[in-house]
Amino acid sequence: MATLGFIGLGVMGGQMAKRLLDKGHTVIGFDLxxxxxxxxxxxxxxxxxxxxxxxxxxxxxxxxLPNTAALKRATSGPDGIVAGLGPGKTxxxxxxxxxxxxxxxxxxxxxxxxxxxxxxxxxxVLTIQRGELSxxxxxxxxxxxxxxPVLLDIGPKxxxxxxxxxxxxxxxxxxxxxxxxxxxxxxxVLLAEKNGIARETAIEVLxxxxxxxxxxxxxxxxxxxxxxxxxxxxxxxxxxxxLALAMGQRLDVPLPSAAASNEILTAARSMGFAEHEMxxxxxxxxxxxxxxx
Amino acid sequence: xxxxxxxxxxxMGGQIVKRLLDKGHVVTGYNRTRSKAAWLEAAGMRWSxxxxxxxxxxxxxxxxxTDTKALLGIAEGPNGILAGLTPxxxxxxxxxxxASASRELAARVxxxxxxxxxxxxxxxHISLQxxxLAVMVGGSAGGFDRAKPILLDLGPKxxxxxxxxxxxxxxxxxxxxxxxxxxxxxxxVLLAEKSGIPRKxxxxxxxxxxxxxxxxxxxxxxxxxxxxxxxxxxxxxxxxxxLAISMGQQxxxxxxxxxxxxxxxTAARAMGFEHKDFAAIFDVLAAMSGTSR
Lengths: 293, 293
Known about the structure:
heterodimer, A: alpha/beta, Rossmann fold, N-(1-d-carboxylethyl)-l-norvaline Dehydrogenase, domain 2, 2 domains, six-stranded parallel sheet, globular, B: alpha/beta, 14 helices, 9 strands
C-alpha cells in the first residue's frame, strides 16, 4: 500500500485523514497548528514537522486548506510541499481555491517531476462520516486512475471532470447552489411561518418535499438548534460565491440568483454573523421579515 | 371502502386516479375533455357527466385543476361540486390555488353540511409512480383523519399542517424552491461549461452532489434535452411564484431569490418558452451567456 501524506488537518482534512486511517492506510500528517492533530495521532497518524517532510515521506500527498493564500503558503518556500516532491509523487489538493491559482501550482509541481490533481469535495463533516462524500477531480487521467482507489476510500462518488483546475471550477459551480438553496429554503420557512404554520412543521414538510437536497437535510435543522461547531461559516460561503461571481464575469455567465444571495451574506456579516454557520442567513431574512426568534 | 370521486383528470389527476383504482378503490370521475379519461374508464373508472354527479355518487370527492379560476369553475353553479355535496361528505381539493380563495370555498362547503380539506402535493407524476409523493393537508383534524388512509395510498408522506388554506400556503412556500434551485443549477452548469467542462459531465457531477434535491435529480437532465411534454411549464411555475410574492408582500416576508428568479420566467415566456417545462430558464440564461442548448 502507498504511503499517504495529509497537510491541513482542520475540520474537513482531519475527518478525511481519519477515514484513511480507518481504512488501514499509513498516513503522515502536518498542520500549522499541531494541537489540531492530537486526536489523529492517537488514532495512528504519524506526525512530520513540516509540509516538506510530509511530501518527502509520502507517495501521495493530500492537502485540505481554507483558501488560495493558505494553499500558496503551504506549497511554496523551503519547507513547502513542492520542495519535498519528486518524480513519481502525486499532490492531491482538496481545497476549494481559485481555479487559476490551482493551475499555476500544478505547473510548478510538474516542474519538479511530480503531478498534481485538484480534488475538491461536495459535502460536509457529516457527509464524510457517513461515507457519502463526492469528489471531483481535475488533472491528467493516468494520475486520476492511480489515485482513484484511495479517493474511493474517502467517498463513493469520484468523478474525473477534466484537466487541472477544472474540478475546482466545478466545485465553485456546485457551491453557489449551497448559498442559493439555503436562502430560498429560509424564504419558504418564513413565508409558511407568517401564514400561521409552526416553524417545525414547515421544516418537516420542506424536508419531505422535492426541494430537499442532501445539503438542506443536514443544514435545515440548524434553524431550530444552532450547531455545536461551525462547519461552514458566512465568510467561507461568501468566499465561494465571490469566486463564482468573479468566474462568471470572466467567462461571461450571468449569475442572478448567486448575486442576490451574496448580498444577504454581506448583510449577515454586517449584522455580526460573519463567523456563524451560514444557515444564519435565516436570521437576516427573519429580521427583515420582522420575525424575532 | 368509501366510494371516491375525482374531478380533473389531467396529467397528475389521471395518474392519481389510476393509483387509487390499482389500490382497489371505486372511483367515479369527471373531466372537461372526456377523451383524456378513456384510459381510466378502460381501467375501471366510472364516468359522470358533471362535477355535481361525481359529488352525488361519492362519499369523498377529490379534485385537481390548474388554477383558482378552474377550481371555482368545477365547484360553483348548478352542475358544480357544491350542488352535489350533502352532510357527511368530504371534499379534498388537491389543486395549487390561492389560499384565501380555498378558505372561502371551504366555508361554502361547510354550509352544505360537508367538509373541505386543501391537500396540495409536492412532486410530479414520476414521484407518484415511484410512490414518493408528499401530500400536505389543511383543514380540521377530524377531516384529516378520514382522508389520511386514502392519501397514504398516493404517497408515504402525509402531513397535517393546520387549518383550511394552510396546506396551500405551505405548498406555495415549498414551490418557490423549485424555481430558485433550478435557476442556480443552470448557473452552475453554464459556469462549469464555460470553464471547459462538458455540459453532460457538469450535470452528472451536480446531480450527485450535496445540492441534488429530488427535483434537481429529475429536472437537472432537462438542460440536456427538454421533454416533449412539459412536466411543469413556465406559466404554471410563474403562477406559483406570483402567489408566493404576493403572499410575501401581504405578510411582510422579503423574498429576494424568488423575485430574481421570477424575472427569468418572464424572460422565458418572452422568448417563446411559455408552454415548455420551466427548465427552459436554462435557455434564457444560456442565451444571456452567449451560448445555447
